[in-house]
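Subject: two folds for Thursday's group meeting

Dear M.,

Sorry for the delay on this. The cluster queue was jammed most of the week, so I only got both jobs back this morning. I'm pasting them in the order they finished. Each block is the input sequence followed by the predicted structure tokens. Could you check whether the formatting survives your parser before we put anything on slides? The first protein is the one we discussed after the seminar.
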Amino acid sequence: MGTLQFFCPATHQQASTGIETDLDSLRACWRTAVKVNCPHCGQVHKISVRETYLGMALNDAVDRASMLQRPPVG
């Protein structure tokens, strides 16, 4: 399970939709859209589920990238 995240179209900041989901549920609603209250600009955005991502997936990718960029210890 993870929370669907999106980027605010006005501020380009990462925000949560508040929707907890898993990959199977995400596949089932791939062609739908959700309306979310944006904490950054205060507007309601209609976001296609295709434009969202699972926060845990992005965090894992960032963690892996940072590990690859660190110099070896020793």
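Second protein, same layout:
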Amino acid sequence: MEALLDALQWPAMAATLAAAWLVASQSKSRRTWGFWCFILSNVLWLAWGWYASAWAVMVLQVGLFALNVRGVRKNQPA
């Protein structure tokens, strides 16, 4: 189980990179997917941070989660 939790940082990193790529798109739907990918990465980083006792990473991810939820909402059709 410990090895699985330790390895969690790699999918978290991949999700973060994919999200950054998608959020930079000019397509509204791709940006929305990007924010959802960021939210997934926030959850993965929180899980890894809890395991690693990385409290600053966890606090950062909570703040970024709130900003990504805002991004999803602002990207919705009016």
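Two things I noticed about the second structure. Helices lie at 2-7, 9-23, 28-52, 55-74. The chain is about 85% helix and 0% strand.

Cheers,
T.
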